[in-house]
Amino acid sequence: MTALPHPFDQAISLEPAGGDLFAGHTSEHYWNAISPFGGTTVATLLQAILAHPQRLGDPLAMTVNFAGPIRQGGFTVRVHPVRTGRSTQHWQMEIRQEGDAEPAITGTAVFAIRRETWSDLESKLPPVTGPEGLERYASPARVPFLQMYDIRYVDCNPLAGGENSTTQCWIGDVPPRKLDFPSVAAFCDAFIPRLFVRKGAPRPISTVTLSINFHVDGETLEKEQGKFAFGKAKANAFYGGYYDQEAQLWSQEGTLLATTHQLVWFRE
Amino acid sequence: MTALPHPFDQAISLEPAGGDLFAGHTSEHYWNAISPFGGTTVATLLQAILAHPQRLGDPLAMTVNFAGPIRQGGFTVRVHPVRTGRSTQHWQMEIRQEGDAEPAITGTAVFAIRRETWSDLESKLPPVTGPEGLERYASPARVPFLQMYDIRYVDCNPLAGGENSTTQCWIGDVPPRKLDFPSVAAFCDAFIPRLFVRKGAPRPISTVTLSINFHVDGETLEKEQGKFAFGKAKANAFYGGYYDQEAQLWSQEGTLLATTHQLVWFRE
C-alpha cells in the first residue's frame, strides 16, 4: 500500500531542472481567488533551497516579493547561493513563467548553521486553550486554499469588525501534517487579512512583500509533536492604500517558530 | 557663504556611474567597529533608488542582507528595477567592492505610489516625555557612528541588564537634521543591540539581515517638523547564535514612520 503524498507536499514539489533551476506547478488545492495562495509560493521557494545541493544549514530569514501574478500551470524557480560564509549563506530567489519577460516573484533568503549559545525566549506562547478545545472556523470565503487549513480562533469571530485587528488562532494543515520549515513558512501567510478583521468583511487585497525570521532549528522542529501552530497577528497601520501585518507563530510545545511581517495593497 | 552638507548626506552621497550603477565611499563619521554602520548602508541603497531616473513613487518596503564585510574605501551600488506595475515597482539591490567576486550586500525594495484611502493607525506613539525633557545618552562604546546620533532614553539605562530587552528612546541626527527616508532607514539600525540590553554590556554581534516597512509617504514626511523620531524596540528570541530585533519608529508629531525587524548573529 502506498500512501498518497499530502496535498501540501504535492503543491510545493519541484523537479530539478539543472543547476539553480527547479520546475514546479501551481496546485488547484492551494489556489486563491486569482492566483496561488502566497503561502505555497513562499514555501516553494524555501523547498527549492532545501533541495539545492549547495545548501548550508537551516533557514534563518527570507523575504518574498510578489511582483506580478502567477498563472495556473508550470513555473520555474531559480535559487542561487550568492555568498557562502563559514556559518551563513545568502540566497537570491525568483519564480518565472514561460513567455514572461519579468519574474513574477523575487526574493532573498539567509540560511545558517546554528550553534549552542545562551538562549532566551522573550515572546512566550500566550496561556490559551489548546486546539482540541476549540472549533474550526468556517470561513464564508469560497477560495480553495482555505479548505486546506484548520483555523481555530481563541478569542473572537475574526469578522466581527472593530478598532483592533489583532487575532489569535491555532493553524493546522488539512489533513493534519507534521510541522516543517515549508509548512511554517506557509502558515505565515495563512492569517485572515487584517483589513477583513477591521472591516468585518472581505475586500480586495494583495500581499506585496512578506518577510519571515525563523527562531527554530531543524532538529528542534523535527521533535515537535503538535501539528498545530499558534499565531498572533496584528496590523500597525493602514495608510495610503497599503497596510502591514505582523505575526508570531509558536508550536503547541511553546517553541517560537517564526515571526513575520508583510505589506499588503488594499482597496476599500 | 556655503553651508557644508550634513555628514549623513556626505556619507550616503553617490555619483551616477552609468545605468543602474552608482559610486559611493565609506564615511569615517559613520564607521562602526570593523565596518560601516549598517544604517548608512541601508540608507545608501535607498538613496540610489531615490536618485534612479526610473524610480516610481515612495519607498514601501526594503530588505538588506549583510552578506560580507565592506572595507573602508569606494564601493559600487547597483539598483535595478526588476518589474514596474501601475502603482508598485520592485527593485534588486547590491553593493560590491573592487576585486571582490561576490557582493557584500544584497537586497530588494518595493516602491509605490500611494493614494487616498481609509487610514487608521493601530500602533500609536506612546504618551512619553518629549526629547527636550530628556538627556542625551552617553554611550560607553567608542565607535565613531555613535557620536552621530543623539539618543535619549525615556525609561531606562539601556545597559542595566534584566529579563526584558525592550527599550524606548528618541533618536536624532547630530547635528540635528530634518527627517527623510534615508535618515529614517538609518534610524532603523541605530538601536542599541538587544543582546547588550540583556547582558548589560557589549558583546560581539553582527546584523545578518534587516527589513523595513514604511508607513508614511514623502509628502507627509516632508511636513514633519520634529527632528527626532521615537523608537520602541524589543527582541522576541535569542536562540542558537542568532536573535531578532523588532522596532517601531514614530515622528514627534505621532506619525508612524516605519516598522523594522532584523536578525543578528551573536557570540556570548
Write a concise keyword list for the protein shown above.
13-stranded antiparallel sheet, 268 residues, 5 helices, 14% helix, homodimer, mainly beta
Please give a quick description of this structure.
The structure is a homodimer of 268-residue chains. Chain A is built from five helices and 14 strands.
SSE layout and pairing:
The structure is a homodimer of 268-residue chains.
Chain A: H1 7-11, E1 15-16, E2 21-25, H2 38-51, E3 58-66, E4 74-84, E5 88-96, E6 105-112, E7 120-121, E8 149-153, E9 167-173, H3 181-187, H4 194-199, E10 205-214, H5 218-223, E11 228-234, E12 237-239, E13 242-251, E14 256-266
Antiparallel strand pairs in A: 1-2, 2-4, 3-6, 3-10, 4-5, 5-6, 8-9, 9-11, 10-14, 11-13, 12-13, 13-14
Helix pairs in contact in A: 2-3
Describe the structure.
Two copies of one chain form a homodimer. With 268 residues, the first copy, chain A, is mainly beta. In chain A, strands 1, 2, 3, 4, 5, 6, 8, 9, 10, 11, 12, 13 and 14 form a 13-stranded antiparallel β-sheet that branches. Chain A starts with 6 loop residues before the first helix and ends with a strand. The first copy, chain A, contains five helices and 14 strands. In chain A, helix 2 runs antiparallel to helix 3 (181-187). The relative contact order of chain A is 0.16. Helices cover 14% and strands 37% of the residues of chain A. In chain A, strand 5 and strand 6 (105-112) form a beta hairpin.
